[in-house]
Amino acid sequence: QSAVNVPRDFEGCSTLRKYFGQLHYLQSRIPMGAEQEAAVPIAWTEIFSGKTVTHEDIKYEQACILYNLGALHSMLGAMDKRVSEECAAGAFTYLRDHFPHSYSVDMSHQILNLNINLMLGQAQECLLEKSMLDNRKSFLVARISAQVVDYYKEACRALENSETASLLGKIQKDWKKLVQMKIYYFAAVAHLHMGKQAEEQQKFGERVIYFQSALDKLNEAIKLAKGQPEAVQEALRFAMDVIGGKYNSAKKDNDFIYHEAVPALDTLQSVKGAPLVKALPVNPTDPAVTGPDIFAKLVPMAAHEASSLYSEEKAKLLRDVMAKIEAKNEVLDQFMDSMQLDPETVDNLDMYNHIPPILMEKCAALSVRPDTVKNLVQSMQVLSGVFTDVEASLKEIRDLLEEDEVQERKLQELLGKVPQPQGSPPPPSPGLAEVSKECSKYMEVHEKASFTNTELHKAMNLHISNLRLLSGPLEQVRAALPSPTLTEDDKQVLQNLKRILAKVQEMRDQRMSLEQQLREMIQKDDITTSLVTTDRSEMKKLFEEQLKKYDQIKVYLEQNLAAQENILKALTDANVKYAAVRKALAEVEHKWNTTVQTLVASYEAYEDLMKKSQEGKDFYTDLEGKAAKLLEKARAACQAAEANRQQILEKEMKKQPPPRPTAPKPALQKKPLELEAGGLDASDLPPLGSLVLSELPEELRSLPPDVLAGHLARLPPHTLAALTLNPA
């Protein structure tokens, strides 16, 4: 009811569009077409004949609504300000192209063509007027005006059709006369502006012929304008003043000044029209116009099937695109892996300008502990002192034991006992044996600890210099870290490589973004509603139209994939130049990392060094105490052993009988004393004064003469034979 009694305003246009859209949704679900099961009679009155026309076809209802929509638009356009290039031709065009022309005579092809071109011509008039007010270029204004002429010529042809003439009756002649008048008038306007362009180009002969043609066409328009309203007559008179003045002035200037030949009009290039107006589009399935589909829940099975087919078309499209993307990505990944170029680290020059955070932490930690190095040095000194003390004590013990061993060996030889095998010391006293055993144990422990102590001192000496550096000013720390030295050419090579790597990343990112956009578009693309309202014979065409929405993103992807070859070629060339710079940077980076790790290791080793140093001090302090006690014990044992040896000697001397008196004998010759193998009798011993004192053992030199004589009597022959006589 609202569509039949539509108000004459834009709200009425909206109502007609909504009703037309809902009819479209309805006819796709309910068989209401001609000769279908649910068809009902639909009646409308022809606008020109006044006859009522009835058809049992829902498309007739749609056609009549479209016709009225175009008519209402034309009425609103006539009332509106002449500044819009949109026009009512859209409804008539959609009606002409999508509906049968046999419903009624006012919907015939010729009538619809007439309406379309009248609407387009009037819309182009509005644009022409606006262009002249905006002082657009003369050639553009001429083309716009020429297009007005073209539209009205098409309208005039439709009016000259016999069917149209019989339908329109008397108004056919009036409309034809008015349209012809407009044709001449706007042709005059077009040639007026072509003359202006010739004037701008200083083609004064052409200017005269264009102005003359404009004047001739305007005179024809004035002839056809008889009976038109006064406003039209006034416009024509104004145009005559302008064109007539232009023509007279141009002719006079050319006759008296320029003297250019005036060409014939048909020798000049014709003015080609510029169609700049647009028909308001009609889309029966646009929800913004028609509102929500009130029959949305009624989806025929055929629509579901068609939707599945469309989904397969989308999937095929996606598979094709992804196959190309994956092939290119595989090539790109293999290429980048072979290059071993990480965009994040290819240019790491900035790292050399700063002390790394981990090193800054260590410097900050040492800044609040200024005595770190001092404590470590003192700990080393204390440890060395204790170590030296222990070593001295153990050496003294060893010396005492060796001295005792020597004395014991001499005593044994003096007493005439069988000497021990070479290298085997005589058995010590029980006290000394215990001391020797403990000394050996301490020496073994000391030797093992000595190696550890040496390694600890090496580690301390290694880390102390690093700790001093970390404790000092940050400038010194920064100066101690290696840094690369690059020439300007090296820097240019780096910049070029970075730029191309950025291009590679940009290409990757764009490719991923386009792929994601494509996936999202395909996922959201549901044309079920359109399929419901589309005839089965039109499905393939609809699929093709709908899939065109992916053309743009496919073009972008193709461009992205095609660019890869050029980018990788440029990257290869840049990488060749980068090889030498890369090697130098890698070496410096290795030194940098090694230096940083060494400094950090020195800091982290500090606590461990202090701990081990303390453990070493504790160990050697304990060992020093034990060694000191053992030293005292050794001294006491050695003294006891020495006293024991003296007692043994004294006892041995007391066992000897006193010497018997003998007559003096003449002095012996200076030759070795020969003794019998069976031994010597005491009476056969030479006087003590006849022996060479220096040949006697040190232990016997200090013995009293009587004790010495008794001792010599007990010596074996081979021992006594070694002695020589005193030359005195």
TrEMBL record:
Statement: the UniProt record of this protein carries the keyword Coiled coil: yes
CDD domains: V_HD-PTP_like
UniProt key word Transmembrane helix: no
Keywords: Coiled coil, Cytoplasm, Endosome
InterPro entries given in the database record: ALIX_V_dom (IPR025304), BRO1_dom (IPR004328), BRO1_sf (IPR038499)
Domain BRO1: 1-332
GO biological process: early endosome to late endosome transport; endocytic recycling; protein transport to vacuole involved in ubiquitin-dependent protein catabolic process via the multivesicular body sorting pathway
Coiled coil spans: 497-524
Major localization class: cytoplasm
A cellular-component GO term for this protein: endosome
Subcellular localization, as worded in the UniProt entry: Cytoplasm; Endosome
Annotated protein name in UniProt: PTN23 phosphatase
Lineage, highest ranks first: Eukaryota, Metazoa, Chordata, Craniata, Vertebrata
